[in-house]
Amino acid sequence: MEKDHQLTPFYTKLLEYAESNTICHDVPGHKLGHLKNDMIDYAGNQMYKLDANAPRGLDNLNRPTGVIKEAAELMADAFGAEKAYFLTGGTTMGILSMIMSVCRAKEKIILPRNVHKSAINALILSGAVPIFVKPYIDSVLGIANHMEYHDIETAIIENPDAQAVFVINPTYFGVTSDLKRIVDLAHEHDMMVIVDEAHGSHFPFSDQLPIGSMEAGADMGSCSLHKTVGSLTQSSILITQGPRVDHIRLRSTINMIQSTSPSSLLMASLDVARKTIYNDGPKQLPILIEMAKKTREEINQIPGLKTADETYFKTKNAYGYDQTKIIVKVSDIGITGFDVYKELFDEHHIQLELAETHLILAVLSIGTKQEDLNALVKALKIISDKYIPMELEPLLPKVKYVYPEAYTRPREAYHAPKKYVPLNQAVDEIAAESVMIYPPGIPIVIPGEVISQDILDDLDFYQRSGSVILSDTEGGYIKIIDKEYWEKWSDDDYE
Ligand SMILES: Cc1ncc(COP(=O)(O)O)c(C=O)c1O
């Protein structure tokens, strides 16, 4: 039977509860906004009234049988999936759950090296062995991007015992691989396909966008509806289809890492975001795509600036491109993306999603207004007018793109005896922690990899360019395996 996507079962029930004037002798302690604090003063208590914990009638996310189940069924229908799980820990939680429910210790998983840190953490938690595929290196834009089909094909053929292939659809920069073909090949080899769709939640709602994981036939995907579809930050979904998914194992993994007090605000925001994108997305996304196209054309008129669009990425062996992203190469005028990112915020009150050495990235959604795009174009013109007369040297593309060699499994390295050394003494040591630039949160080195001088040079470069570097250890030190103790201790049977 066709689903009615005007319905919002969870949100409607929550609203009913919020308006019911029930006397609250349960948590949360704000008692649906019945106390005073600075945030209630600012926002009013309406949001707090919707922040209920687990009153009767509002169902249980750990084992939904009522309104959460109904809302999840509508979500699955909207995404063309058989089943959807609501997540209140972002796609970070979705990726942990997917990998941990598919790979046991020492089982292999094929994945691109430029995965989000949650995939690396899933390797530590599961004990899986990563088979990394090198992503396509775009030396013009200075980024690691999508996986190419033939590289995945090689990895699948060389590792017939791998459990799964993990694909990013799309990358942070909006580029997709040929997901359908990858799915067909992986399934032929009896491997599952699990998809990081953190940046692709809007794909199923316009045929002008790349295809989503379910349409491509993948087994599981996790989508950050909060990133591009308009739900509250941290609200994501995990969607599945087909006979390969072990729902008992998946459910128990999700419940292991899900809070027992999942936010009703987040869940309700998923319910209403699904209603909006399902009903309005097919009309509004083409308008947004047109707005983005016009904006790119205007930016291309600005001296020294150049946007990267679908045509550009297709010359870089990309399969598809999410046209709701705006990528601008700024380094030809002799300044970095980090400089422009900072200047746009400091001088023009514009917050971008991300900067890299050569580029800046704006992420648009159906919430983007034309005047906001006009403001971006105007500010970029001012920046170009300021720097072009300085005749700075264009920044050269990076020559070397290095990925560290793996020495041992991430889980083994994580549990090994460790010590701390200054970064400049870490050459040839084995990392016991991930070090990454945020955003995008893609690790430069992960536990178990050998730290080379090239890796340290990369880190130094990012540090000097003002990026935020995230790692466990601070102050110019890094956590490494203490080889002397480790050799006595390890026979790599740490399951
Ligand atoms: C490619 C990619 N995957 C996964 C994630 C994690 O998503 P979330 O922020 O919803 O936890 C991110 C977050 O930025 C990401 O960029």
Automatic annotation (TrEMBL):
SUPFAM superfamilies: Ornithine decarboxylase C-terminal domain (SSF55904), PLP-dependent transferases (SSF53383). The keyword Cell membrane does not apply. One of its GO terms (molecular function) is carboxy-lyase activity. Its cofactor is pyridoxal 5'-phosphate. Pfam families: OKR_DC_1 (PF01276), OKR_DC_1_C (PF03711). Residues 222-236 form the Orn/Lys/Arg decarboxylases family 1 pyridoxal-P attachment site domain. It comes from the Bacteria. InterPro entries: Orn/Lys/Arg_deCO2ase_major_dom, Orn_Lys_Arg_decarboxylase-I, Prn/Lys/Arg_de-COase_C, Prn/Lys/Arg_de-COase_C_sf, PyrdxlP-dep_Trfase, PyrdxlP-dep_Trfase_major. Keywords: Aminotransferase, Decarboxylase, Lyase, Pyridoxal phosphate, Transferase. Belongs to the Orn/Lys/Arg decarboxylase class-I family. This is Aminotransferase class I/II-fold pyridoxal phosphate-dependent enzyme.
